[in-house]
Amino acid sequence: MPPRPAAFLLAAVLATSGCATRGTGAAATPGDPLEPLNRQVFDVNLALDDAVIRPVALGYRELVPEFARRRVRSAIANLQEPGILANNLLQGRFVDAGHTTLRFAFNSIMGLGGLFDVATEWGIARRSGDFGQTLHAWGVEGGPYLMLPLLGPSNARDTMGWVGDGLINPVNWLMPIEGTVGRGVADGIDLREQNIETLDALRGDSLDFYARLRSVWQQRRAAQLGEGGSGDGGEPDVLEDPATLR
Q: I need a labelling partner for 63 at 20 to 30 A (CA). Which of 24, 39, 79, 143 fits?
């Protein structure tokens, strides 16, 4: 999946179902020719997470009840559906586009603007769909692995895809820039709050945290690109048990 603002660590390990290898050393590895520079950016990101993002996520958990956090999470996800729909269509995944359209309609109307995910309760699971995935379907190669400031793990194609997602989602055309930025920050904080314990465990168990996250991100992203919407395409926001990442 493309990177998400204010949640650089999560972009690497969301919904991971594969295994990751451990690595050591800072020399460039195949697929990561910019590794020395990427590691420097990663260190800055990690310091920002320790100093700001994780403490804010903890405060969010303590101050906002779980019921309210779930409503925020659901509303933000609903605003992402038009972008998913656009990518479903661009990839020729018309059945998934139909499901995404139904999800957005049901959740926007019966779910009170997306505050409640009634579509999932009715058996209409969320589909995947981002512009990096679309570029992959069009034959664009991934390019070198990149560690972006704040945004986290990516590659050249998915970095372009992240920009494309911002342009093709009509919600962004209607919402003022302040609203778009605020939505991204809220999404990142909520995402970080959901994964505090799991990321702590993953970091504590890694001999080389950078290499571990790179491996996990690459494997998960390859799985997303390969699914092509054939399954439910869901992108759950909570990490699995760290043991599954070893």
A: 79
